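Q: Given only this backbone (163 positions), what sequence would you predict?
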């Protein structure tokens, strides 16, 4: 077969695709739309080599009635955000993403997680032990211990600020 002498077609428009950070954070926000939490919608996407490995959103375990049906115990008890994580029927988005990867045998060691809210200390500890190497978050969350532990672990943490 003879090679074509036709010139390569040059795009006539500027590449307007989102950068990778914007792309994956947009997906994390879309994943958050599946939340069953009445207080906060959080979504997470675990990525390695620009490939999606797992996703997670905050909500109750599979097969358990949603908080919209039974109410929010933390709300009823007046528990402030960031305190008493054990008094909650739900799991955090990062936890569900890690669990999804484990359930399906997906290696996330060395991966990046995009999450629309900065991880709490419970999630930070799980992300450290799961081998996550980078956390990209959109909304800051005031958890000093989480920030200290992530810094000490060497995980790169950076805030995504939409352009």
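A: Predicted residues:
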């Amino acid at each position: 077969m003879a090679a074509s002498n036709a010139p390569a077609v040059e795009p006539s428009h500027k590449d307007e695709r989102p950068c990778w950070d914007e792309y994956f954070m947009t997906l994390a926000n879309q994943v958050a739309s599946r939340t069953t939490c009445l207080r906060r919608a959080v979504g997470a996407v675990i990525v390695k080599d620009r490939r999606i490995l797992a996703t997670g959103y905050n909500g109750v375990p599979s097969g358990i009635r949603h908080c919209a049906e039974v109410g929010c115990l933390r709300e009823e008890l007046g528990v402030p955000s960031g305190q008493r994580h054990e008094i909650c029927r739900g799991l955090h988005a990062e936890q569900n993403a890690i669990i999804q990867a484990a359930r399906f045998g997906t290696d996330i060691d060395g991966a990046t997680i995009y999450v629309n809210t900065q991880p709490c200390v419970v999630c930070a500890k799980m992300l450290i032990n799961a081998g996550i190497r980078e956390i990209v978050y959109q909304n800051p969350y005031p958890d000093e211990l989480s920030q200290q532990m992530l810094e000490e672990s060497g995980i790169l943490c950076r805030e995504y600020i939409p352009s």
